[in-house]
Amino acid sequence: MDRRFAAAAGAGALLGFAAAAYPALWRDRCLNWGSRPDEVAREMPGDGLLPEAPVVSTRAVGIDAPASAIWPWLVQMGPGRGGAYTYDWIENLFGLDMHSADEIVPELQGLAAGDEIPLSDKLRMRVAVLEPEHTMAWRSDDGAWVWSFGLYPEAPSAPGGNQTRLVSRNRIQDPRTGLLASVLSLYVMEPGSLIMERKMLLGIKERAERLSSRSTAWAESPV
Which of 40, 132, 172, 220 has the fewest CB atoms lying closer than 10 Å? Predict the structure, then answer.
């Protein structure tokens, strides 16, 4: 009995330490995974749609491909569309009908500003900003969430190469209030969003680099 009590007390103390340390030690890394200081500070199209958001995340990944090989994967994202390139089984636990595509779907490439992307029966996003091969921003119908994507070309590390930074920014104004909602947002939603968004960014990276290498191979093949 004493051992069980000691184990429970130790686990409780460890959990308490982690909860106390997260805001100071790990939250910034969680919210800004993969991004550089200049990317966190950079203003992105869509920021002005929710300028005073209390929660802002900026996550990024470097992709060895031009923006033209990345953009189609972004445009076709969404439930019942190209999916989110993340853990489909987790998304579908919430009934989101996510099935991540491994190919470009031509009929999903005609996205336009103002188009609606329903994430669920209660949550609908609308394309607020759309600049082909540069930026896309979605805004929820209740105005509490703005999700922006930016593509920023960089100097290649090797002659003839292409490198692009894909930056994803979330601005969130949770309409729920109270201690419980704040705790859930801080300790559940934020780490959970990192797990899903990291997988999404890496999924887009893998698909775009594969598409880019395939295009290069076709261009270099003898006629």
Answer: 220
